[in-house]
Fold each of these.
Amino acid sequence: MIFDPPIMALLLAAVVSMTVVTLGALFGLRVLRHWDINSGGARQIGMEKQTYLVSTAVQLVMLMQLASLALFVRNADRMAVLFTGAMCAVGTINVNGYGMPSFIMQVIVFFAAALWLTVNAADNMGRDYPYTRLKYAMLVLMAPLVLAAGITEWLYFLNLDPNVITSCCSKLFTPENAGLQADLASADPKLALFALFGGLGLLAALSPLAMRHRAAAGLYGVLGAAFFAVAIVAIISAVSSYIYETPTHHCPFCILKPQYGFIGYALYLPLFFASALSLGIAALAIWPRPESLKARLPARLRHLVAASTGLFALFALIAAWAILRSHLILIS
């Protein structure tokens, strides 16, 4: 199975990512110890030259990591027909014990990569590269995550067995069973939807303040990142049931299928990227503002807040449309 083109692409991306991030983290340790932008010494000049190459390579890898999550899920959904008991990506991911840890690590690395890209873009705006130490400290912390994600992904694909009978989503995402998936499915739909649209309303109300005040931007970023968990709970407990038009189906992966118009992609893409931008907003607003970016960083934050708000609004419109067009009456 590992010779399937999408799997080969994912495994190759994992190897490249592990290699580049590990080498970048080792270079980052040197930066953390010796970086001094005010120095004209040979060591500093050498590091400044190297950081262009390292940052460019890491940037490409981080972009690849953003795409890898979508490809991982799409491939899992595509391969569901190969495993007995699998109806969607959930069944494929649960074929062995490495699938779910691999998926979770992919999600974590997605957000870490998006955060690093945001900080790196801000660093390139300053004449003195004010966030160089920060972004390489982040890279050092990210290295174990990328390694763990790559290793679990390799173990997952190497241990795929088409003879295994896996669990379908209807058994995992049901309130009658035990486990996290069942707990999410059993959440009160009325409360979940109130938290979903209430949270979106709060972010929309806070957005104009976040564009003008740094403290408000920091709060917006923290709340926007935290909202991701609220949205996932609401999708599983309520929104997905409206899409399926049955109160007992709560799978967050079946909505990616063509029979539901691929609406899952329309929901998840703006949600993931809006939440990722919120992380970047929080980091740039909370971290001390460097002198070289006092004039340019506020505009950068405004653009990020506007983009995040727009994506959250798109997510809200799609979720509301899915609920209003449904024939299911879930809340009386």
Amino acid sequence: MKQRLVVIGNGMAGMRTVEELLSAAPEKYAITVFGAEPYGNYNRIMLSSVLCGDKTIEDIVINDRQWYIDNGITLHAGENKTVSRIDRKNRKIYAQDGTFAGYDRLLIATGSKAIIPSIPGNDLDGVISFRDIFDVNRMLSYTKSHHKAIVLGGGLLGLEAANGLVLRGMDVTVIHNNEVLLNRQMDRPAGKMLQTELEQRGLKFKMAAKTQQLIGDDNGHVKAVRFEDGSQLECDLFIMAIGVRPNIALAQEAGIYCERGIVVNNTLQSYDPSIYAVGECIQHRGDTFGLVAPLFEQAKVCANHLSNHGVAEYSTLPTATKLKVTGINLFSVGDFMGDKSCECIHFTDPALGIYKKLVIKANKLIGAVLYGDTTNGNWYQELLEKEEPVSGIRDALIFGKAYV
């Protein structure tokens, strides 16, 4: 008799766990999946490629509905199939339309929600986040009939949205609350080089800006944004892209222990031993997650334990940053700012648009920022993860692996 595995969330982390599980123990579970979007499993990180026209929605589907049928998986997908309650006592989950399923093991992979700042006017028409296919389709429809867009957030997501809208012909301004773009991933020199390159592509920027309110027209549609310095910018479309937070409401209501995310141990198990969690909804040793590499590693470890092979343990490694904008190469990993106890090695070639910075502490590489030439990014990341002494190769380190 197969055990019952129910998965809440049809995104990348949950379905990668299912794929790993099908590979490790294909006959162990009868699997049921609940997803809030009316699609199979798609690659969310490629939404920016759909927005800018490099790919279609069909191109980014990872597992279509036939895949679920072929693997004997029951898929409940669509808004009315959103799970509304977990009954831990009776080990059942219930969707909004009353659909329910019993479980022996439950996997929560509810992902994250876009942060919507409490700016007056954030409920106006034309104010949207950049999170899923629905958001992308709304943006694409706006590009056909509207002209001026403002993107709030100069992080990875905001820049990818802004670039896509510029390529679709819109006049786009990015508002950022810091003086440096990608300030969590880049230092000032790299951030300024990135801004210059994006300006050459048609993007505009208002940096170190504090948004005061969104202003609507007589029909309740956004028409402008006002800043604390009294200035205003017109817009027909306002995109919120300032980050995400773990989607833990369902777990909290069920009494599963959460802090910023669903707290899990090294086997991705929650405080309820029959419930596991992976992806952007979790918190592991104080960390939450927003990039895909750690999610896939979590999926592998979780599947290992669900299949009763039970030897793998998840540990958080430094995750590298890359921007999905064609023709722009940037890479950062680890502690790229350092402190007084650190030593920094720099290389700059303004004519070629190349900037490199390596941060060394106690004879080990602890951080790197690369702009323009990211060839050695993976090598630097390996050195950082392995914590290998670099004294023997220090003189040539900035030039890359081929020179050491």
